[in-house]
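Q: How would the C-alpha cells look for this protein?
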Amino acid sequence: MTEDTRIPPPLTGDERTTLNNWLEWHRATLAFKCEGLSDDQLRLRSASPSTLSLLGLVRHMAHVERSWFRRVLNGEDIPKLWDKDRDNDADFKEVDTASVKEAFTTWEEEIERARAISAAKPLEAVGDRNGQVCTHRYILIHMVEEYARHNGHADLLRERIDGAIGD
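A: Here is the predicted structure in C-alpha cell form.
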C-alpha cells in the first residue's frame, strides 16, 4: 500500500465536528484499502459463495451515500445506482465487467454531494426513510457504522490480495 496520509479524527470537538471527522476518516480508509491495486485485484472475491470484493464495496458505498443523503435526507426522487431496483445486490454481484473508473468516480461524486447536503442541514433535520422519520444525526452515525463495518471487510480483502494489513 502507499503511504498512509489519512488524518485521524481529533480527540476533542463538538458533536457535528466529531461525526464529520469520523465519517471522513472511514471514507479515506476505504480509499486507502483500494490504493495501488489493479482492476482485477479490486474485483477479486473474498471466498465462495460470497460476492464481496473491494470494487463491490466502493460501488455499495456510492449507493449508500446517495441513498441516505440525497434520497432520505434531501428528499430527492432519484434512481438507485447499479440497477439495484432489479437486484438489490447488483453492486456486489456485477463487478466482473463493471468499470472501476466509473465506480470510483461515482463514489467520489456522491461523497461530494453528501458533504454539501450535510453541511447545509442541522443535525436535527429530518428525512423520510420508507415512511419513517430519521434525523440527520442518525444518518451520520449510521454512515460511520456502515463504513466501519465494511472497512473491516476491506481490511480482510486487502490482506488476502497482497498481505497488506493495518487500520
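The beta strands are 126-129, 132-135.

The domain at 15-162 is CATH 1.20.120.450 (Four Helix Bundle (Hemerythrin (Met), subunit A)).

Upvote if useful.
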